[in-house]
Amino acid sequence: MSTDPDKDALSWSGETDPTHIAAPAAAKPQLAGTLDERADAANPVLLVVMGILAGVYLLYAVGWGIHAFTTSVPVSGVFFGIMYQLGEAFSIASPFLWAGAVWLLVKKPVWRLLWLFVGVLVLAPWPFIFGG
After folding, report:
1. What are 74-101's pLDDT values in tens digits?
2. How many C-beta atoms surround the C-beta of residue 116 within 10 A?
């Protein structure tokens, strides 16, 4: 502790802590691998493409919803009617389920983008698109 009260009033007790913001760069701990992962994840082009794909998935869910709510159940029987409506509910939720599964299970941005493009082809609301 310093004998000068003015210097004591203008200093913090944790200034020499290596995790302190104003600490020298050499004293700060380095986290291994996080800079490379952040650089890939924060790529502006990648973020724009993923945003566009998110919009496509939202439109797919809307297309499946429009198809599900404008068609009647073409089967007879309680069990088959329930199963048909369950299939319609899953078709509406499928773009969100696919995107969530890709986001949680695939770690590399290039593979994540590839699987999202595969989902664009697989999950398209073909009955809504072709009017079937």
Report:
1. 888 899 989 999 999 999 999 999 999 9
2. 21
Tokens of 72: 């009647």
Environment class of 16 (CB within 10 Å of its CB; exposed 0-12, middle 13-18, buried 19+) = exposed
Q: 67-86 in b/e burial notation, b at 16+ Cβ within 10 A?
A: bbeeeeeeeeeeeeeeebee
CB 123 within 8 A of CB 95: yes
- The DSSP-derived string for 23-92 is S-GGGSPPPTTHHHHHHHHT-HHHHHHHHHHHHHHHHHHHHHHHHHHHS-----SHHHHHHHHHHHHHHH
What's the pTM? 0.63
